[in-house]
């Protein structure tokens, strides 16, 4: 629907949306005080406080009791989850994820990239005695995970800079990439291969390989990551067994999203 310029917009709704955009466009900050939001929105602090109180009453904003600053509430996540569900990616991908696990007997995740972090949406667990702790529902830095790196590889240099320029790339293990130039170089290799590895970069003794799920434009909208203990995830198993299987089914999912590659 196209709105005419002479339609009077609801200012309180516009202010709420602008408030959410402050959180969305902030790469390295997830909490704000009333004064900060007042300056960002160009509103009096009393107006901002009432706006926050209204959104907090519905769970879209919450206050950190320790800092007294405000952050996004659980209902924002739920709303985003509903959007993802409406796209049917999870419903579409689930049968193929189950096939991959049945064939390689290692756990698999599906996840999306959001503001430099991976959000793990779903997983199918392998029938193994030794398994990796589930990451579903967690936000994990993209630069040190296979599922994040395969999606970062398709981002422009400007997008990468906006995420990481001036930011500290935290070291989680001895294998974590911690410099932006090294990350950019690595992502070029990932893009050329069209798969990404996590060689114990986020968690010690955990290895992963990820492949992209692409839309009709060939742009990754999500990714699949087969994950397991490093003792089982040998190079031989990854490249002879897991990668061909994951790639095959990721292509099938992509085709159902309109990808013609």
List key phrases describing it.
two-stranded antiparallel ribbon; six-stranded antiparallel beta sheet; 8 strands; single chain; 261 residues; Arc Repressor Mutant, subunit A; alpha+beta; 9 helices; Beta-Lactamase
What this model shows, in words?
- The protein folds into two domains: 68 residues, Arc Repressor Mutant, subunit A, CATH 1.10.10; 169 residues, Beta-Lactamase (2-Layer Sandwich).
- The protein contains nine helices and eight strands.
- The strands form two sheets. It has a six-stranded antiparallel β-sheet with strand order 5-4-3-8-7-6. Strands 1-2 form a two-stranded antiparallel sheet.
- A hairpin with a 2-residue loop joins strand 3 and strand 4.
- Helix 2 crosses helix 3 and helix 5 runs antiparallel to helix 9.
- The chain is globular and about 60 Å long.
- 31% of the residues are buried.
- The mean pLDDT is 88.
Let me know the average pLDDT.
Answer: 88
- DSSP strand (E) fraction? 15-25%
Order of helices and strands: HHHEEHHEEEHHHEEEH
List the strand order in the largest sheet. 5-4-3-8-7-6
The total beta strand count reads: 8
What would you give as the CATH superfamily of the largest domain?
A: GAF domain
The assigned structural class equals alpha+beta
**How far is the N terminus from the C terminus?**
32 Å
And the CATH topology of the largest domain? Beta-Lactamase
Architecture of the largest domain, according to CATH?
A: 2-Layer Sandwich
Oligomer: single chain
Main sheet attributes: strand count, strand direction, barrel closure: 6 strands, antiparallel
| Helix percentage range | 40-55%
Q: Please mark out the parts with pLDDT under 50 across 5 or more consecutive residues, or reply none.
A: none
Domain tally = 2
């Amino acid at each position: 629907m196209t709105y005419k310029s002479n339609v009077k917009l609801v200012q309180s709704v516009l202010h709420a949306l602008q408030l959410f955009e402050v959180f969305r466009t902030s790469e390295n900050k997830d909490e704000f005080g009333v004064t900060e939001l007042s300056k960002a929105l160009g509103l009096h602090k009393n107006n901002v406080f009432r706006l926050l109180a209204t959104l907090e009453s519905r769970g879209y904003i919450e206050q950190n009791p320790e800092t007294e600053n405000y952050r996004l509430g659980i209902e924002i996540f739920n709303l985003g989850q509903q959007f993802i569900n409406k796209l049917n990616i999870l419903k579409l991908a689930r049968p193929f994820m189950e096939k991959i696990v049945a064939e390689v007997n290692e756990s698999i995740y599906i996840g999306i990239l959001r503001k430099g972090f991976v959000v793990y949406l779903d997983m199918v667990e392998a029938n193994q005695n030794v398994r990796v702790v589930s990451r579903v529902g967690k936000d994990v830095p993209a630069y040190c995970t296979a599922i994040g790196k395969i999606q970062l590889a398709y981002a422009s240099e400007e997008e990468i800079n906006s995420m990481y320029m001036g930011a500290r790339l935290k070291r989680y293990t001895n294998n974590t990439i911690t410099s932006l130039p090294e990350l950019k170089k690595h992502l070029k290799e990932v893009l050329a291969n069209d798969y990404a590895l996590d060689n114990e970069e986020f968690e010690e003794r955990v290895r992963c390989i990820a492949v992209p799920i692409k839309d009709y434009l060939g742009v990754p909208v999500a990714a699949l990551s087969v994950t397991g203990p490093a003792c089982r995830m040998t190079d031989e198993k990854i490249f002879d067994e897991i990668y061909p299987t994951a790639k095959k089914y990721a292509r099938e999912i992509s085709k159902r999203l309109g990808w013609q590659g």
